[in-house]
Every structure is written in C-alpha cells, then in structure tokens.
Amino acid sequence: MLPLVYHPLYVAKDVPPTHRFPMDKYRATAQQLVDDGVVGSLDDYHAPILAPESWLTLVHDADYVAGVLGQTLDEATQRKIGFKVTKFIEHRTRHSVAGTVLAARLALEHGVAGNLAGGSHHAMPEGGAGFCVFNDVGVAGRLLLDEGSLGKILIVDLDVHQGDGTAKIFADEPRAFTFSLHCEKNWPRRKVPSDLDIGLEEGLGDEAYMRVLADTLPDLIAQEKPDLVFYNAGVDPHRDDRLGLLDLSDRGLAKREAFVTETVKRAAVPLCVVMGGGYSRDVTALAKRHALAFAEVARAI
C-alpha cells in the first residue's frame, strides 16, 4: 500500500452541496487518484482511527474539545468555525486529525506520506475558525514531539491563507518552526506571526511565486535541520479559487508540488503532506488540483 491516508468519514454527509465549503472534495480526490492509476482502489488507502480526546487536548483547551465532542458549542463559536458542529462534523474532524498523525508516522517509516484531508491551520487553542475545528498538524506535531519520535519539525504552509492557528499553537515551541507563504491581503485580517511569514501581493502568478519559494525553502530546511516536514498543500492560490486572490495555474501548482517534494527528499528529511484549502465550485477540477501533491508522494516512494 502507498503511504496515503483516507477515510470515507472525511466527508460529513450533513453538509449540503450548496455550502461554501466543498465537502465532497475529499471523496473526489481519493477517487481521482484511483482514476489516474496512482492508487489501485479506494480499499488501498490506509484508514485512520477516531482521534482520542487526549490527543486533542494536547493543543486545544479542554472545554472547547468537550464542546465539540458533546456538540454543545454556543452559536457564536459555531458561526466562527463555519459549520454547525454535529456528530458528523465531530467524527469528520477527529478522523482527519488521526489521519495526519498516521501520515506523519508513515512518513517517518517510508520517507514520504500524505493525508487526503487536514491542513486545518485556523484552529487555535481556544477554538476553531475558517472551516477548521481541530488543528491536525498541531496535534500531530505536538504528539510526536512529546513522545520523543522527533526532535524538530518544520511546517511549510503554502495555503493561500496565513496559518494563524498553527503559528499560535507553536509560538513558544522551540522544537517547531512555522513558515507561511500566503496572500497578504487575504483572510485572516489579523494574523498571528509565524516564525517566518511571507505575504504575497494579490494576483501573483506562477513564475514569481516559484521564485519566492525556490529562494526560501532549500535554505530554510538547511537552517532548521528538521526531523520531519509537514506540508500544507492548499490549492487555493489557484486563479479559479473563490477565496484565493493569487493567480497560479494548474501547471504552476504541479510545479510547486514537484518542487516541494523533490527539495525535501533531496535533503533526506521525511515529508508529511496534508490537503489544505481549495474552494472552487467545480469539485472535479478541484480534486484534480488536490491530487497533484499526492501523486508526487507516490512518485517519491
């Protein structure tokens, strides 16, 4: 089995197709990789468990975690998240968190792995936001650091939105370095400083974007010498994304995914890829974009 993680419960079936968040993209991306011949069948993915409460409280306040698990969050908190927190949403996000934990462990074993969900980088210790309930990279990173599996992690967040929740979770953690490359004038308006933030101007295209990334990532890996890289491969920098404001093409995204994978592999550092954001109405096109990063995982084995 390729070290790719997926679970049917990544799709919360009570979120309607008209919702701003394209929930079906998880199923569609898993199927796209099958259709492309990257994965043999939907049965060939590794399946995560339901993340236990003890994992979630490593980075989130206990009262908030209890509110999600018991579906007792107040209306204001649920509006900030962007979902009504039902049992389906609870199970979706707990499987997604456990999927990133499993993918991180598979990356340590195989050199590279991916979770066909995750990248919930707006979830902070005190609560969720921006369609993010629990911060999967935050949980996975803290868990592996605390159990001694890792000495240092590097988080490379290329979602179009700044990774404020992840930055806050690891703000006082010297064993973690957070790097966010995002559209400066996009949401969140009030950003929590990462260890390294690069805010890009609106409308930036493929060549300029890749120059910034190429000038930053290799040196950053050499400087930090991480034991594991978490890569948030959000595809919302694409020119057709509803929430993006950058101008990357399909070809530009493909170059980005190949560059990140090859750069981390060349440095002999394990790589854990998570899906991140993507909000195009055309779920088929969106799934093809998300599949690019996971196809690179398969090629790197």
Description:
This protein has 301 residues and is α/β, with parallel strands linked by helices. The chain has one domain (4-8, 22-300): Histone deacetylase domain (Arginase, Chain A), CATH 3.40.800. It contains ten helices and seven strands. It has helices at 25-35, 53-56, 62-69, 75-81, 87-110, 136-146, 164-169, 206-224, 250-266, 283-300; strands at 4-5, 112-115, 153-157, 176-183, 196-200, 228-232, 271-274. Strands 1-2-7-6-3-4-5 form a seven-stranded parallel beta sheet, with helices on both faces. The longest helix is centred in the first third of the chain and has 24 residues, at 87-110. The termini are close together.
Q: Give the strand tally.
A: 7
Strand content: 5-15%
CATH superfamily: Histone deacetylase domain
By secondary-structure content and strand pairing, the structural class works out as alpha/beta
Uncertain segments of ≥5 residues (pLDDT<50)? none
Q: Which features does this protein show?
A:
single chain; alpha/beta; Arginase, Chain A; seven-stranded parallel beta sheet; 10 helices; hydrolase; Histone deacetylase; His_deacetylse_dom; His_deacetylse_dom_sf
